[in-house]
Structures are given as structure tokens and as C-alpha cells.
Amino acid sequence: MSALTVSPIRHRLGLYFRFHPNNIRSAEVMAFLEDLLGHIRGTILLLWDANPPHRSRTTQQFLAQHPRLRVERFPGYAPELNPDEQVWTQLKRAVANGTPPGLRELATMLHRTIGRLRRSQRLLLSCIRGSELPWTW
């Protein structure tokens, strides 16, 4: 799970992430959002796809209890609009030719790639520009 963030005041990009060994459910989404609320001040505008955990009643109740979180949904099936998909493309490239012997080694490879992305404003901006989302800075 990841979130590409844009600070309109500091003109700075950020990347928050959490890996899960199993399918992501509402509980994991809410824990991730709690972390975002703890790290980011002010209103958080979530651009979301229609993943079932995003639409669940539990998640919707959580959103209603946290007015700092505002949600805008992407159209039905439009991964090309989602800049976060570019983050996952970077991760897939990093492991494409690797054969980690286990989950721990895979996690190490992914964390290394995420760390490289997080430290590079240029790479984070390329994730945004690589999407078809209309973007102005």
C-alpha cells in the first residue's frame, strides 16, 4: 500500500508505504490512513480507485469520523490516471529479474527501491508526470 503525497506549500513530494504479505482489507487501509493523519497536517485529499477496501462500509465510517480526509475517486477503471501506479511500476522493475529465495529477501529488495524513490524528488515527480492525471505545480 502506498501514497504519493504533494505538499502544496513546500512544493515537496513524499512517499508513504506499507507492505503486507496478504490481501489488503479495510483494517489495513484504516491503519495506513491513521499513519497519514499522524504525519501530515491539514486536509488530506485522497485520490482513490474503486478497490473494495476503499468502498467498504467500515472504511466509509472511518472517513466520516475524520473530516481532514477528503476523497475524490478515479473513474471506474483508470490506472493510467493514478500516479501511485507508477510507484508500483518502479517496484516491479526492481524485482523483475530477481529471484529472491524468500519473503524476507523480497522485502529487502522492495524497501531498497522504495528508499531510493523516497529520496529522489525527480523520481517522485516522474511518477506523477508518468500518469495521465492533469498536473500543475
Overview in brief:
Helices cover 48% and strands 16% of the residues. The chain has 137 residues and is α+β, with helices and mostly antiparallel strands. A hairpin with a 4-residue loop joins β1 (2-7) and β2 (12-17).
What can you see in these coordinates?
With 137 residues, the chain is an alpha+beta fold. The chain has a single domain, classed as Ribonuclease H-like superfamily/Ribonuclease H (Nucleotidyltransferase, domain 5, 2-Layer Sandwich). It has helices spanning 26-39, 52-55, 57-65, 83-95, 103-119, 121-129; strands at 2-7, 12-17, 44-48, 69-73. The protein has a two-stranded antiparallel ribbon. A two-stranded parallel ribbon has the order 3-4. The radius of gyration is 15 Å and the shape is globular. The two termini are 25 Å apart.
CATH topology: Nucleotidyltransferase, domain 5
The CATH C-level name is Alpha Beta
Chain oligomer state: single chain
Number of domains: 1
Q: Enumerate the strands of the largest sheet in spatial order, edge to edge or round the barrel.
A: 1-2
Gross morphology: globular
Q: Could you tell me how far the N terminus lies from the C terminus, measured between alpha carbons in angstroms? A: 25 Å
Judged by helices, strands and strand pairing, the structural class is alpha+beta
Number of helices: 6
Along the chain, the helix and strand elements come as EEHEHHEHHH
Query: Radius of gyration in whole Å, from Cα?
Result: 15 Å
Beta-strand portion reads: 15-25%
CATH architecture descriptor text: 2-Layer Sandwich
Count every beta strand, where a strand is a DSSP E run of 2 or more residues. 4
CATH superfamily: Ribonuclease H-like superfamily/Ribonuclease H
Mean pLDDT: 90
Helix proportion = 40-55%
